[in-house]
Amino acid sequence: MTGLYKKNLMLLEGLNPEGFKMLSGIFDKKMIIKPVMTRTGDMTLEIQTGERRVFLHSKYDPGKEAAQLVGRKALKPGDMVLVLGFGLGYHVAEVLRVIGDNAKVVVIEPNKEIFREALKYIDMEQFLTESRLKIILEEDIAQLSKLFSHWMDLVLEKEGQFIIHRASLELMSDYVKPLQELFLEWRVRQDTISRFESRLSDNFSQNVNSVKNLPRVSKLFDRFKGVPALLVAAGPSLDDSVRWLPSLRNRCLVICVGRALKSLLNFGLIPDLVVITDPQPSVYSSQLEGLDIGVPIVLLPTVHPNLMRNYSGAKLVAFQAGMNEAEEMAAVLGEQLVETGGSVSTTALDIIIRMGCSPVLFAGLDLAYIKGRSHSKDVGGIKVDSADGFRLVEVQGNQGGLTKAPLNLNIYRKWVERRIEKSHGKTIFYNLSPEGAVITGAPYLDSREAIDKLLTEDIGNQKKLLSEICLTKGRDEIESI
Amino acid sequence: MDSGSANKILDEAVSDGINYLPKLEEGLMSVVTLFREGQEGEGISLFQQSIEGLEWFGTVLAALGRFRDSENTYSGLTLTYNDKLNELLEAWQNMDMVLIGDLIEYEIVPIIDKVMNDIKEGTQN
User: Fold this and answer.
1) Which among A373, A416, A396, A431 has a CA at the least distance from the CA of A239?
2) Dihedrals φ, ψ of A361, to 5°?
C-alpha cells in the first residue's frame, strides 16, 4: 500500500465513513485497470471490461478535457451541481473552481472499484476536506435510484446543473445498468434542448407579433368529450396502415403530426388537424408547401417564421411549457400551456387529451425501429444501424418479443406512458401499431377490431365542429358555435 | 501510372486540399468538442461523416511520400498517420470517446496542420 493510498484511506475513514465502509466490502473485480501517466504528468486509467478497453480521462491533457465538459454548462457562482461519476476527479475540481464559495456540489460515484483507484493515484485531501462537496459512494441500485431522485429534485428546484462524466457512466457495474439508461436518457433530453435553444428563441422573437393575433389551441380543449380520435405519427408502421386508415375517415377525428401529413394524403385521407412543433426552416417546404388543402394546423410559437408566413390555412397557436418566452406570453394572454414531451407526437397527444377525446387510438406511433427503419418511407425513413448516433435499447414489442429503440424514442415512450397515467382513466387509449413498442396504458388493438367495435358511429358533426372552431377567431364567436 | 500523371493527380489533390483540409480539421475538432461536452449523438454522426475525409487525407499523404519527399518527411508522417488511424478505428470499435477525442486533437490534427502549412508555403513559393 502506497503512502498516498494510506493517507487517502485514513482521510476517507474520518471524513466520509459511509464511503470508507463501502470500500471495505467485497470487490467483483470485473475490470482490469491500468494506471497511465498523461502528457501533463497527471494520471488517467485505462480500463478493460471483457474485450472492451476505454480511458477514464484523456491520456494527453485531462485538465483541458474536464474544462471542456464543465465549460459547456455555463455554471454560475452559487449553483448547485449534481455530478454523476467521480472518476479521478478532474471535472469535479473544475466545477469547484468555477462555482464560487456559496455553491454545493454533490458527486454520486456508483463504482467503488474506480473510486478505490482514485484513492491510489490522486491526493484526495482537496476533495475530502472540501466543505462545498459531498461525495456519495453507492452501488445498490435501489439506493442509487433514491439518491438520484432526491438530489435531482433539489437541482431542479434550485435551477442547478447536472453533469455526467460519460466514461464513468459507461463503466457502471452490470447490476446498476438499468439506471445507466435513465441517466443516458437525461443526457439525450438535455442535448436536444440545447441543440435547438438558440433557434427556438430566434424563431420566437420573429414570430411574436403574428402569434399574438393567432387563435389559440385552448379553443379546442374540452369541446370533444368522448369523441374518438386517431393520433397519426410518422413511424414506419404508417406504411402498412394504408389498408385500413381511409376506412376511419368519418369515424374519428384524425389528428396527425406534420411529418405524417403527406402519407395520409397519399392514402386519400385528409386529417382534421395537423400538429407542427419542429423549429427548422425546412419544415414548411418538406411538409406543407404546395399541398393547398387548408387543413388547420396547431403550431408552437417557436416554429420557423417561414411557416407562419406562408401557410394559408387556419393556424392555432399552442404555448409550450418549459420555454420561458412561451410561458411568459401565455401568462400575459391568460392561455393554458401544453406539455410537449420533447417531440411532435407527444405534443399532439397532450393536445388530444386536453380536447377531451376518448378513445384515443395511436397509428404509426411505433416508438421503436421496425425492420431497421426509423420512419415511414414517405418521410425518408431510411434504414438505420446501431451506430447511428444513438445507442439502441431493447424494449418489449407488441408482437411479444423484444424490439429495438433508440434512446430518444424510449424517452418519448416513457413520457407517453406518464401522460396516459396522468389522465387518470378519463381517456381510453389503444395502440394500433402491430410491431411497435408496448406502450403501458395503451394496449395493442388490431385495426379491424378497432373499426368494428370502437369506431362504429359517423362523427361528421364533430368534424364539422372542429373545423368551424379552428376557423373562428374571437371567444364570442366560438361560444356561439 | 507514370510519375508525370501521378504528379498531375497530386497537383489536383493538393489544390483540393487547400480548400478541403481546413474544413476537415474544423469538422474533426467539432467532433472532439462534441465528445468532450457530452454530446455523443451529434459527435458520432459528425465523426462518421469525417471518416471519408480521413481516408482521402491518408491517400494524399501517401502520394506526397511517394512523389514529393526529398527528405523522407512524408513517408514518416504516413506511417505515423496510418498507426494513429488504426488506433482511432480501434477506439471507435471500443466506443472510447475519450481516446477518439485525444487521437484526433493530439495526433491527427497536427499532421493535417503540417501538410496544410506545407501546401500553403508551396503555393506561395
Assistant:
1) A373
2) -110, 140
Please enumerate in sequence order all residues whose Cβ is within 8 A of that of A155, keeping only pairs 6 or more positions apart, or say none: A80, A81, A82, A161, A162
Relative to beta strand A32-37, strand A43-49 is: antiparallel
> Quick check: A30 pLDDT over 80?
no
Q: Please give the residue of chain B at the shortest CA–CA distance from A66.
A: B36
Per-residue pLDDT band at A290 (split at 50, 70, 90): confident
Kind and range of the H or E element at A81? strand A80-84
pLDDT digits (tens, 9 = 90+) for A195-220: 666 788 899 999 999 998 899 999 99
Domains in chain B: how many in total? Answer: 1
Distance from CA of B75 to the nearest CA of A (A): 25
Contacts of B38 in chain A (CB under 8 A): 69, 72, 163-164, 166, 187, 191
Number of other residues whose CB lies within 10 A of the CB of residue A33: 17
Tens of pLDDT, residue by residue over A433-472, are: 998 999 999 999 999 899 888 999 999 999 999 999 998 7
Q: What is the C-alpha to C-alpha distance for residues A355 and A423, in angstroms, rounded to an integer?
A: 12
Specify the pTM.
0.59
| Domains of chain A: residue spans and CATH | 3-170 (3.40.50), 198-479 (3.90.1480)
Q: What are phi and psi of A281, to 5 degrees?
A: -65, -25
User: pLDDT of A300-351, one tens digit each?
Assistant: 999 999 999 999 899 999 999 878 889 999 999 999 999 888 789 999 999 9
The fraction of chain B above a pLDDT of 90, given in percent, is 33
Burial of A385 (0-12, 13-18, 19+ CB in 10 A): exposed
Query: Which of B30, B31, B39, B47 to probe by mutation at the A interface, max A CB count within 10 Å?
Result: B39
Q: Is residue A55 within a helix (H) or strand (E), and if so which, with residue range?
A: strand A52-55
Nearest CA in chain B to A408: B41
Instruction: Locate all alpha helices (DSSP H) within A356-474, ordered by sequence.
Output: 407-422, 447-449, 460-471
Q: Kindly indicate whether the ipTM for this predicted assembly is greater than 0.90, answering yes or no.
A: no
Contacts of B62 (CB under 8 A, 6+ apart): B78
Identify the domain containing residue B68 by its residue range.
3-124
Please give the pLDDT value at position B124.
52
Contact A353, A215 (CB under 8 A): no
B39–A55: do the CB atoms touch at under 8 Å?
A: no
